[in-house]
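Appendix B, Record 12. Input sequence as logged:
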Amino acid sequence: MAPGGDRKPMKEMSDSDRARLDAIQQMVRIEIDGDWDARMIDLAFDELERLVEGRPSTPPPEPAVGRGGGRGRRR
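Logged structural output:
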């Protein structure tokens, strides 16, 4: 597949989008070395894309209930 072949066109950024992207650029640095494979690279950039778009990457863990730390009953 050609680089960027499946990319969507960029939409115009709002001021809040630009501020979020600027903050992410200051916090995140991805160093790809010889230990990375294509799957790891795809995952890292998919997660970064979700972060930039403001989408959660994974659902948050359920809080532990009681002292056992196990999963409680759902209501």
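The two ends are 47 Å apart (CA to CA).
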